[in-house]
Amino acid sequence: MDRVAVITGASRGIGAATALALAQNGFRVVVNYRSSAEEADAVVRAAAAAGGQAVAIRADVTAPDDVAALFEQTEQRWGRVDVLVHNALIPYDVTSFADLSWEQLGGKLNRELHAAYLVTKAVVPGMVSRNYGRLIFLTTILSRRPRQGMITIGTAKAAMDQFVRYVALELAPQGITANLVSPATVADTAASGLLKDEELRQIAAANPMGRNVRPDEIAKAVAFLASEDSGFITGHCVEINGGLAMD
């Protein structure tokens, strides 16, 4: 295996678990981070200990120059990008509609879509030239199942979901797949840190499996979508929610 994968927001949580899973599967992995350099370096060491190859590269995925530099460094080191896993968490406010400002909603929409646009634009030309690519975007069940206080992230991710479907439709003839992975509330992540302990317990209790999903469970689904075996799956949203939503 000599495939190269870039994972945004990979210094912790889902991104870190995905980096380790892909490294274990033989991918050369770029661990992107914005500010958590020590944690990103720890992920690189864990990947190396598992027999894989990894490097940490800092970039803010909402900043065009940072994104350009991220992929330039990747191509200089390993020649190409075969897999993009867009996992970076774009900050958002937890608020009711009554208290919601346009700056909160419009700002989240702009940053979410801008980041997805930037990273996708950066890798697609090379993928088209090789007639191969895997684009994987982390979304949330909140884009389809509203929950109090989550209007900014739910609305922004719903917009990103549709963006991904249009990308999938256009790129399918070039052998490039684009899919979404949608976990329910995830234990031990930055997003779950926005919730109170009692809220996390209530969410876990409401799940048919009686708990919240783990980062490694999401990473295994991402690893499948990044593999050769997923070549005829595109434009889909893989739900990892323990039966909470059955569409």
TrEMBL record:
A single Gene Ontology molecular function, please? oxidoreductase activity
Question: Which Pfam family is one of this chain's hits?
Answer: adh_short_C2
Which domain of life does the protein's organism represent?
Answer: Bacteria
Matches recorded under InterPro entries: NAD(P)-bd_dom_sf, SDR_fam
* Alphabetic keyword roster: Oxidoreductase
Could you say which protein family the record assigns here? Answer: Belongs to the short-chain dehydrogenases/reductases (SDR) family.
Report what the protein is called.
Answer: Short-chain dehydrogenase
Q: Which source organism?
A: Mycobacterium conspicuum
